[in-house]
Design a protein that fits this description.
The protein is α/β, with parallel strands linked by helices. It is 47% helix and 11% strand. It has ten helices and six strands. The chain has helices at 2-15, 23-32, 42-57, 70-81, 147-151, 166-180, 199-227, 242-255, 257-263, 265-274; strands at residues 59-62, 105-109, 113-120, 126-133, 135-137, 143-146. Helix 4 links the parallel strand 1 (59-62) and strand 2 (105-109). Helix 2 crosses helix 4 and helix 9 crosses helix 10 (265-274). The longest helix is centred in the C-terminal third of the chain and has 29 residues, at 199-227. It is globular.
Amino acid sequence: MAFLHTLTRWLRRIAARPAPIPDALWQRTLAHYSFLPPAGSADAARLQRLAAHFLASKEFSGAHGLRVRDHMAVAVAAQACLPLLHLGPPDAPERALVWYGNFVGIVLYPGAALAPRRQRDGAGVVHEWREALLGEAMHGGPLVLSWPAVQRAGLAEDETRSAGCVVIHEFMHKMDMRAAGTADGAPPLPDGFMGAARPREAARLWQRIWSDAYAAHRQQCTLAERFGGAPPWLDTYAAKSPAEFFATACEAHFVQPARFAEEFPSLATALRAFFRQSAP
């Protein structure tokens, strides 16, 4: 009953009419991030509506004296809502925001966030350190983002490397966590995913597609690091775990969809089905 009460309250909150995003600010946001829908398109208008509801449902705060201004919050909202663009009904796209309904806070840092880490090694020695992060998603807790990294979304050093988007990356972890409470690279799948008749069949299909691609990416990373092989196009951070592979692949899928489909055709097909996107 507590879950149903929370869900009902959430749906009422996103159904309320939010304050509109000023058109001038929205146009500047679309122009800054080239992977967002083009201004004047139906997708841009749909995304603007989604982003407005997103802003009404989240609470932004700045760390270390950073003042969160309107253009910063809108930049985060636009990128966070891009994967949800086609997950809601045509007349109420904001219902897709239920994917992000288990947290409220978003914390922006003026640089990298330093997160305390603690680990016990095989000899029983405890090691403590601080890890510099561009973003972090915690189950049920706030989402942390480095504002400079948010601004750099879509930019790559050269065409041999995939461009990143820390906002999409961290919000994909949030979607991933909705299945089991932890990120494992296996988010809840829609009914009939890729023609699957049953949820178990869909889960097996997803696992086969992603595990094969993940193993191949890890192998390419190993060959490049140890034997001087050609480095992979997708960020090597994706080789850290299935969860990071999923989040990093989603970044590339939305930021550079054509190139991602060339590199990972099976993953591109699976992600288009998951996010209910039409074929290119």
